[in-house]
Amino acid sequence: xxxxxxxxxxxxxxxxxxxxxxxxxxxxxxxxxxxxxxxxxxxxxxxxxxxxxxxxxxxxxxxxxxxxxxxxxxxxxxxxxxxxxxxxxxxxxxxxxxxxxxxxxxxxxxxxxxxxxxxxxxxxxxxxxxxxxxxxxxxxxxxxxxxxxxxxxxxxxxxxxxxxxxxxxxxxxxxxxxxxxxxxxxxxxxxxxxxxxxxxxxxxxxxxxxxxxxxxxxxxxxxxxxxxxxxxxxxxxxxxxxxxxxxxxxxxxxxxxxxxxxxxxxxxxxxxxxxxxxxxxxxxxxxxxxxxxxxxxxxxxxxxxxxxxxxxxxxxxxxxxxxxxxxxxxxxxxxxxxxxxxxxxxxxxxxxxxxxxxxxxxxxxxxxxxxxxxxxxxxxxxxxxxxxxxxxxxxxxxxxxxxxxxxxxxxxxxxxxxxxxxxxxxxxxxxxxxxxxxxxxxxxxxxxxxxxxxxxxxxxxxxxxxxxxxxxxxxxxxxxxxxxxxxxxxxxxxxxxxxxxxxxxxxxxxxxxxxxxxxxxxxxxxxxxxxxxxxxxxxxxxxxxxxxxxxxxxxxxxxxxxxxxxxxxxxxxxxxxxxxxxxxxxxxxxxxxxxxxxxxxxxxxxxxxxxxxxxxxxxxxxxxxxxxxxxxxxxxxxxxxxxxxxxxxxxxxxxxxxxxxxxxxxxxxxxxxxxxxxxxxxxxxxxxxxxxxxxxxxxxxxxxxxxxxxxxxxxxxxxxxxxxxxxxxxxxxxxxxxxxxxxxxxxxxxxxxxxxxxxxxxxxxxxxxxxxxxxxxxxxxxxxxxxxxxxxxxxxxxxxxxxxxxxxxxxxxxx
Length: 815
Description:
The chain is an all-beta fold. The chain is built from four helices and 48 strands.
């Protein structure tokens, strides 16, 4: 592709900047005004100009992905205002929030409100978001409810990822990267070739190894069940990805694409360092669970010991905490033009995901933990979707009809063992939840074009989803399971999710649109802890309805792109996490349905390529977002929250004859009505400048700088004036890159810096009593005064601070 074509493509980018992939440039126009330089997106699962799609979305091209070294969803979030990524432990996995709508639970059984779609395969479980990403051609972040086009309802949005297909010429790409802070070594090798005029193959492989970005300075105290880690690096590991793509086009009417991915990832270390210690680091029970050097801040340092196998006989991996991911997934997509302007598409998906892990259960050091957490998770999904879609050139009406089926099986085994060196039982609790998922849905849409410039589209998805939980308990590590009766072993959800959009494309440079939408997410079961006999471990559906209006315009002879939209949505029964404690102090994880919430705001973005400065592109994106609980009077209290602090709901019954005293626990809940949703910053901004300049004969120097700003937000359920440390302060991150090489990209040397301001951010924190090992002296909530345990500490998983990479790429084509 010529350099001038790349620069023209940069001008047309709607929500972001940079170039359009070659495959998108060649996509056919579907309706009235489509310029050859338009960005082509698949927000409605067909190729369309981004100018005409009535959806608010941010698009990252292959060039953006490469320049900024984006290899996971956290990297995507650095480029998208309003998108927050929260880390979590064990099988809970990544927690994604968009405009403040997301999942905040510590439960592995919760589907994310923002789903991820890789080459047509919809994924919703947080641990699956850790699947490594590379060789991507485009990422689309669709904001707001997405009910019709991506397999299942996604009430918060969709991150749609397209990986590269085989091209028309033989191509070999090699990349080598070194990251200085984590001592990361990463290599990629991609081979693409056309076997014949109708068959193409692309094989892509990646291997990475790093020592760990974070520093662990823990030193174990003798005789307390801990062991000094053998390395001062934390969360280092190895990963490889192998992807194969087969593209077969036997005729002009048939296109078959098969993608198969296999990934392996192993991390040594694990847990959540302390981000807040309201009562200091001293132990009220004389056991040093918190290191006296601990600064209790979200930063690069941690003090978490390994497990002594003498105190924890069941500890695997020699007592060294670890996480292991084994994933195989893929899609088979067949497009068949059954008649002129009528296409039948079949998409078959398979996903098999295993996560295995061991953790220091209370993130302790220098003392060993009071408990260990051993977790094994498995998810398997088969999906099948059929779509029949028309594109009649002489008819004002087009249609889409389709059906979707999912057969899923989710199993989570948890074992919690006690520290024998502290006198705790060898076994505390354990069990298995096996949840089956059976989904049938039908969807359709009619698109009416009364004129060339107007489109009215009405669609609906009907979903019938069944879930069943076979809960069981174990009495010791490795013992046989015993069925556990629960009150609601079967759940069934039936839902209609309609959508209405009106798009007015006045000319090829101006589009105005409006949309009314509904969406939902099925209820499920709490799976992170063993089910209690004759209890209800289920939670209900999450629902949303609302709408948005927006405008997309190209001005100043298309040098200036301006887009804006206003959205307003009401959520009912939002699924949120509740962390409580039982009488024995073992944390109880629940997912509950908040009564209601309201989310509204404005998305605005612009990009400018001044015609007088060849090669320069500037862009800015702003999200103002107001996300609040409008009714949530059954929110759990944090540990140590007194009646005077707002823990005054859900009175707890006292045992017969027990008098009410200042230390008698009386309440379990608080009213969070009016409080912000977790991870819902009111202001987020992204912006930057890229400049490409010729250097010498047929050489090019690329320079880029971009920044992300976020106002403060909550790292978990609560209020800004609640538990200390729960508020993430406002921050700004600056990223920069520079690369040099020939115009044809035969080779390129790059220097990439991310988060150069070295801001440590935690989008997710969990409350627990770190100072007492949680189980030895649980904090007291809902009383007039606190007990000796004081107030809960916060365990937070920070994002990485400053990172600097050097990368060498080589490309050989046409041989």
